[in-house]
């Protein structure tokens, strides 16, 4: 039992370390410049940031007057294991509160920042953190990737505006995709690849997106289409088990096709809900069925090969000259303008 407990604790420690990514200030500045109009008179809460070293706190405190903020609150999770918590300057979990410049030097001086101890560990799910969340109008942070679903669900439950970073896989999470499909969440302007680590090193991840429900000009811009299905139908193979054509790149979407199309999930980075309708996600293991049918009897001989490539019964797949092709996850869309 002791060995199993140790392994479990080590797994938790490893998972926590994988979530300890610090967003760089230039990445924050590059994205936040598009949202300035949203912050006037608002309380901003950064609830997954070490308040002593958070670049989110740095950005909002130094731009407090420029943005017209009402209040800034920053807190984070204090893990009981010392080697898992940022700079380890204190054993106490705290939150910082800043209400703006008092001496007119336009700098957040230490004596202007309220330091408040927390009774618990600062987990965003704790009662203390939820009480702070209730005060906030907008939440801006880089939450733990491993808890992204739970984190976004909490923001939706408490009806909060938000701008948060999540990895590319979050698009295919059932809860997140449903929010995108129902036009309750969308992607921001930029992607993030490089994060800081507690030891001062840099870490490169797969592409991460900004996810938000703050209205931005980008989501109202049309994707310019220039390809024609009628002229090159052979360029758009159909799926064996779903009535839709496959489109490998967003900019290859045909301008004259009025049926269902399977496009890469990165399409959502350019998605305009006035131009396209999202039908569903073209993989069954996401839990979002769109009517994809299981393999037909005549396809059974290809099943082993398909499964080797990571597909499951019900995934979208194509066949050409007897060869099986299983594309990556596809968003099924339809052009509203045709």
TrEMBL record:
Gene Ontology process terms (BP): methylation
A Gene Ontology molecular function term of the record: methyltransferase activity
Species annotation: Algoriphagus marincola
Keyword Protease (UniProt): no
Presence of keyword Thylakoid: no
Pfam families: EcoRI_methylase
Designated name of the protein: Adenine-specific methyltransferase EcoRI family protein
Keywords: Methyltransferase, Transferase
């Amino acid at each position: 039992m002791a060995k199993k407990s140790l392994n479990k604790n080590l797994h938790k420690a490893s998972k926590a370390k994988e979530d300890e990514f610090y967003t760089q200030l230039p990445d924050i500045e590059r994205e936040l410049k598009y949202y300035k109009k949203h912050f006037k008179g608002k309380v901003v809460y950064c609830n997954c940031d070490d308040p002593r070293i958070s670049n989110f706190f740095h950005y909002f405190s130094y731009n407090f007057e420029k943005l017209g903020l009402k209040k800034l609150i920053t807190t984070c999770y204090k893990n009981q294991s010392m080697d898992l918590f940022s700079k380890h300057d204190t054993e106490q979990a705290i939150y910082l509160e800043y209400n703006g410049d008092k001496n007119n030097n336009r700098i957040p001086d230490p004596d202007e920042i309220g330091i408040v101890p927390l009774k618990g560990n600062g987990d965003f799910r704790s009662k203390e953190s939820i009480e702070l969340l209730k005060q906030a109008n907008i939440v801006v942070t880089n939450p733990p990737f491993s808890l992204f679903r739970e984190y976004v669900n909490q923001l939706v439950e408490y009806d909060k505006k938000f701008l948060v970073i999540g990895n590319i896989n979050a698009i295919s999470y059932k809860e997140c995709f449903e929010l995108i499909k129902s036009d309750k969440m969308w992607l921001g302007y930029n992607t993030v690849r490089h994060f800081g680590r507690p030891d001062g090193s840099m870490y490169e991840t797969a592409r991460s997106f900004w996810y938000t429900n703050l209205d931005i000009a980008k989501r109202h811009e049309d994707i310019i289409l220039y390809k024609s299905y009628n002229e090159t139908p052979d360029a758009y193979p159909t799926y064996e088990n779903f009535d839709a054509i496959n489109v490998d790149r967003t900019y290859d979407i045909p301008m004259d096709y009025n049926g269902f199309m399977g496009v890469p999930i990165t399409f959502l980075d350019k998605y305009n809900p006035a131009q396209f309708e999202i039908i569903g996600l073209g993989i069954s293991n996401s839990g979002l069925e769109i009517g994809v049918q299981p393999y037909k009897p005549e396809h059974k001989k290809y099943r082993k090969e398909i499964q080797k490539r990571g597909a499951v019964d019900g995934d979208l797949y194509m066949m050409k000259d007897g060869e099986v092709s299983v594309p990556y996850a596809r968003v099924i869309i339809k052009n509203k303008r045709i």
